Amino acid sequence: MSQNRALLFINGEPPQHDFHHLDNYAYIACTDGAYHNYLSTLSIEPNFIIGDLDSYNPNKAIPPKTQIIHTPDQNKTDFEKAILFLAGKGVKAFDVYGASGHASDHFLGNISVAIRYYHQYQITFYDNYCHFFFAKHHQEITNVKDHIISLMPFSKVTGVTITGFQYPLIDATLSLGGVVSLRNKAISDLIKISFKNGDLMVFVEN
User: Fold this and answer.
1) Distance CA 187, CA 163 (A)
2) 3-class SS at 115?
3) What is the CATH number that goes with domain 134-205?
4) pLDDT tens digits for 6-24?
């Protein structure tokens, strides 16, 4: 078990694959919307259901060992509340499912939360098509040969250099409304990404 890693489900598109190695996580948690919309139908019992409980259904059974954490603060999303609650228990790394799909404004809100906290915590999002995360200034990714890789700046990233790609970049500037790097391809099992300033999200297609 990793003492500082949590599996977190939030209320977007439900994951369509089986989960193995749940014992690798110190905690499994979900927002109240995620639990009542899909997690309750899976064979996964969370340690915590976290949120403002606007989606809470008192008629739906809750596993006896699951704690309900009521966080009514309307200035934060349930995703942010879950991050902060779990961080208070020593979690430093989050594997997050359900951040994308369904309401597009929720997806952008989840990205906004990740921008705020990825310098403090490792936050990796997973959906049914890819996984994605904000890169460190010097990032190496392994076991990705032949995978499609996209780089999305928020909102301007300078000094971008990438190696191991079909279309390399050297000291490039990426920006929303300008040049971005979509649908590139890894030609090596090891790719390297570096940049100087900005927030750079990396998407790795399954």
Assistant:
1) 9
2) helix
3) 2.60.120.320
4) 999 998 888 888 787 888 8
